[in-house]
Amino acid sequence: MLPQMMLLPGLMCDGAVWTEQVKALAPMIDCQIADYGMADSIEAMADLVLASAPQRFVLAGHSMGGRVALEVCRKAPERVSHLILMDTGYKPRAAGEAGDKEQAGRFALLNKAREEGMRVMGQQWVQGMVHPERLDDQALVEEILAMIERKTPEIFAAQINALLNRPDATPVLESLSCPTLLLCGRQDSWSPLERHEEMAELVANAQLGAIEDAGHMSTMERPDEVSAAIKQWLETEL
Fold first, then answer.
1. PANTHER family attached here (predicted)?
2. Residues 6+ positions from 171 with CB-CB distance below 8 Å
3. Contact (Cβ atoms closer than 8 angstroms) between residue 222 and residue 62
């Protein structure tokens, strides 16, 4: 029987984020992609993942999915054999002006989604999510926009609430004992490489890698490179 792996998408994302990784990893591991439904907190999302996951599994999270993965590790560390965190973060929303600015920015996108539709919102959102040189890649941008369009403003609102009220995962990182891989697009301006370096410093058994010429949506921008990095690491650790 193949090892089991749970793949957690990020904000407004679904299985399309992981399409190429599932294909590449199929010979060595059985992948399942989580769905958060209408969950409006990181904790509730983690509960849904645990309810649908095997008893023990490899766990990978991208963007918001990385935060959900850390919450899964907080709730049930004994069930996670290996952990992969990608283009993500670990700190709660900042206090004061910085936190207010984040909230205002997220609510502005939500209002655009409600008033003009998910696709129009996505056209603005994607500008900071991929490597600037990939914005002219019509196939890539269309794939991202189609994924966003499969969601609703109501789901968007629930996930925004989850992110604005996200827990501090510093203690989780410090307590991790399973093998952990951190990957990040080198040009990720939303969840920068420096943040992943901070995370790697907190984890006892961590390996850090950068995906060249990739922004925040690294799994879709550079699928072959991401798949190769994950596969190589799993071949060593499993």
1. AB HYDROLASE-1 DOMAIN-CONTAINING PROTEIN, MONOACYLGLYCEROL LIPASE
2. 74
3. no
pTM beyond 0.85: the answer is yes
Q: What number of CA atoms fall less than 13 Å from residue 46's CA on the CB side? A: 21
The amino acid at 229: A
Rg (CA), the chain: 17
Helix, coil or strand: residue 4: strand
What residues form DSSP beta bridges with 4? Answer: 30
**144-187, pLDDT tens digit by residue?**
999 999 999 999 999 999 999 999 999 999 999 999 999 999 99
- A 10 A CB-CB count for 77 gives 14
With respect to residue 32, please indicate whether it lies within any of the assigned structural domains. Answer: yes
Question: According to the 3-state scheme, what is the secondary structure of 119-143?
Answer: HHHHHHHHHHCCCHHHCCCHHHHHH
State the total domains in the chain: 1
Domain harbouring 229, CATH code: 3.40.50.1820
